[in-house]
Amino acid sequence: MDKTTTKTVLAIDIGGTFTKLGLVNREGQILNSKVFNTKAKKPFSQFKEKLGKEIQLLISTLYSPEDLMAIGIGAPNADYKTGEMKYPPNFSWGTTVPVRSAVVSVIDRPVFMTNDANAAALGELYFGAAKGLDHFVVLTLGTGLGSGIIVSGKLLYGHNGMAGELGHVNVVPGGRQCNCGLKGCLETYASVTGIKRTVFDLLAESNAESVLRNYSFKKLTGIAISEAAHQNDVVALEAFDRTARVLGNKMADTVAHLEPEAFILSGGLSQAGDIFLKPLQKYMEDALFSAYKGNVKIILSASASHEAVLGPAALAWQGLEGP
Amino acid sequence: MDKTTTKTVLAIDIGGTFTKLGLVNREGQILNSKVFNTKAKKPFSQFKEKLGKEIQLLISTLYSPEDLMAIGIGAPNADYKTGEMKYPPNFSWGTTVPVRSAVVSVIDRPVFMTNDANAAALGELYFGAAKGLDHFVVLTLGTGLGSGIIVSGKLLYGHNGMAGELGHVNVVPGGRQCNCGLKGCLETYASVTGIKRTVFDLLAESNAESVLRNYSFKKLTGIAISEAAHQNDVVALEAFDRTARVLGNKMADTVAHLEPEAFILSGGLSQAGDIFLKPLQKYMEDALFSAYKGNVKIILSASASHEAVLGPAALAWQGLEGP
Predict the structure, then answer these.
(1) Which residues from B are below 8 Å from A163, CB to CB?
(2) Same domain flag for B113 and B60
């Protein structure tokens, strides 16, 4: 690991599967990084210990600890005021998880924390595909569906910092069971897990031949569905079309709220390419209120999965500099 | 009409049925006002002539025309940048209606113009039920459904000033025909017109006795439905329940975008009282994502129909003073 003398922030992205740490400078360069398994179904105390060790290892690579200016944390259901994760679905860490205090006990710096997708939106604004945009929405289409909303160049926090949970708008009243306790949430349809569920719906509904009939639910991946679709597998193609229709329709609803100039898509589902993006654009456009038609772009995030720390890094820099 | 020496703004609220004008001071007192029939299905030139005359009459009541500081206009589908109404449904005035220039040709003052429901939101913030709130959404449940969104104490304009068209989020794909050209828009269900349509659905579906079987669609009013419901008419009660369910579910979606502290309801449908508000609160609460449950209020607007000019008046004062 390289020693460095640049001013940096420590960025931490806590995901349901992996936790990513990075030292990031003001230009968005990741000077050093680390990924470890979150083990979200094990107790928080275990995660806390592992995180503490990894933070200390990473800081030890700095030329001087004084180069570390602040800490940014992106985590599901993060409350930026209290520094806690609140009722995080997919985690067995309890209803109120004191993440900020866990970090501060290791290294005492200003800590800024928000929802992982909110952080991703700031990452796009500072270092990514949204440079120069004032009004946009980031959708992270991974295991779940996360969202971050930028209005007039600022993150939309809402009354208690919990705005932008578009994964939990309703698609079908009484529809698919969501980890959040509701039914029919958008993320149960428009995410990697969502398209897997749609594939299984389709395999049950139709008699069509499909390579996807060889997969168990556990073994099926977004990449497998995407590869099948690119081989013209009818089930895979229909799954992308249905997913695009559901998401495109809801994106039109989001436009009716916020009138963004663009959506920025990231995460596994967004990697499928035109097979997903073309119908998505069409379904959104068809559902747009007349005043919005033709005015809303869909842009793919340019940042790779290992760059997830850029979001919390942008949050930390913004926290230091003011919005 | 009283002569007055107070600094005032001229406020104009253009509705599908009535156009309301008022001279309003900084305290939100309506010093003088006028209402006329909009005649939205006649040519715009006719409206323009009538509006010009009424403005001149109203200004002639001022002690001095120099007391008039600015003009605020609220109108459906208003573009605050261009000062035009864009594709206003329910109006036969064309796709681009130059309202601001029509007003400036009569009286040359700074003119601020926005969507009627956006103006209503500012009216609530300056003079109404939302004083002291930072994050809220106004829903006007009249002939259609209008909305105005306040984020961090400011009107949410969006990229082209067209944010906040919640009347056109989708409830039922391929559902009821909306005047905007789409199908299944929220305002075709959750508005005075929407509940009338729901009553007619119910009269067709069931054999239940109902006083509402005596009304033609044209004669049926929101007040008649409300009165029937208060007499325990089963069709009327079910119509309010269905309307509340649709609206409550969509309000939960809006919370997932914006995390407001409150919704403020105005317009005919909101006047029905607990028969509508109780199920509305319940359906919204049931559909809220866990982090929001119990944190979002529903408040009735305190301003009466004749006070619709307070919205555009607040817009004008805000325009003069800066946000």
Answers:
(1) 257-259
(2) yes
- Residue A149's CB is within 10 A of a number of other CB atoms, namely 26
Q: Are B197 and B74 contained in the same domain?
A: no
Residue B1 lies in a domain: no
Contact B260 A159 (CB under 8 A): yes
For residues A108 and A137, membership in a common domain is answered with no
- pTM to 2 decimal places: 0.90
Q: Determine the structural domain holding residue B158 and report its residue range.
A: 132-302
CATH number of the domain that residue A91 is part of: 3.30.420.40
Contact B170 A258 (CB under 8 A): no
pLDDT tens digits for range B105-131? 999 999 999 988 999 999 999 999 999
Q: Structure tokens of A239? A: 């799954």
Nearest Cβ partner for A163 among B165, B257, B287: B257
- At A145, which amino acid appears? L
**How many residues are given for chain A?**
323
Answer yes or no: do A73 and A193 share one domain: no
Chain B neighbours among A 152-181 (CB < 8 Å)? 156-166, 168-170, 173, 180-181
The complex's ipTM?
0.90
Angle between helices B234-258 and B274-287 (to 10 degrees): 40
pLDDT tens figures, B148-171: 999 999 999 999 888 999 999 999
Rg (CA), chain A: 20
Q: Which of B135, B160, B261 is nearest residue A259 as measured by Cβ atoms?
A: B160
